[in-house]
Amino acid sequence: MIYNPTRSIHIFALGQANIDDLEEKFASYPCINFDKDGFMIDIRVCSGCGMIMAGRLDPQPTECFKAGGITIKADVVSMNMYDAPYAIDYVLTSGNSLNILSVSGTPEFTVNQLGSYRIHAVIVNPSEVAVSRFSNLYDLMSKLKMGGGKYCGFVELSGATFDVNDCK
After folding, report:
1. Structural domain boundaries in the chain
2. Which class in CATH covers the domain with range 50-164?
3. Of all helices (H) and strands (E), which one includes residue 25?
4. What is the mean pLDDT of each run of 10 residues along the chain (168 residues)?
5. Distance, CA of 53 to CA of 44 (rounded, Å)
6. How big is the CA angle at 17 (ends 14 and 23), to the nearest 5 degrees?
């Protein structure tokens, strides 16, 4: 269950409501997504930003590293949801520090070194936030409401992970 933490969800005593009661009650609350099957299907950003959701990315298998680099790609396996003026970019980061190496309109990048990489989906209003001006994904997220900033947007932090090695 995802909900706005400023709203009280203590409307039923524990053990005195069934799942259908909860679903019926929460359907009337703004900014709550409740799925009794336990699978989250959307995220409602309750900050006046509207519906913004980046689809999950799964890494495609990679080949062994070779001189000149290799291409890493991710598949978008669930739907992206956003309206104009928002746009989606895909960001390549390295290591656990999530330093941004490149930005693209597709989840596909060439890497020229061995290492750990991730491809992330980022949804922002490009007239407010220029993704290419950031060198770190955490810094970018800090400008968005989801990270305490003032702009609407979404950063999919986990990303599709790749371990690029020489297979030796």
Report:
1. 1-41, 50-164
2. mainly beta
3. helix 19-26
4. 48 58 55 49 55 89 93 92 92 94 98 96 96 95 88 91 91
5. 8
6. 115
With a CB cutoff of 8 Å and minimum separation 6, the contacts of 88 are: 54, 80, 82, 105, 121, 122, 123
112, two tokens: 């020229």
pLDDT in tens, 53-81: 888 899 999 999 999 999 999 999 988 88
Greatest CA span in the chain, whole angstroms?
Answer: 64
- The DSSP code for 9 is -
Torsion angles phi and psi, residue 40, rounded to 5: -75, 125
Q: Give the C-alpha separation, 150 to 102, whole Å.
A: 24
> Is 38 in a helix, a strand, or coil?
coil
Write the DSSP assignment of 57-89 as a string of letters: EEEPP-PPP-TT-EEEEEEE-S--B--TT-EEE
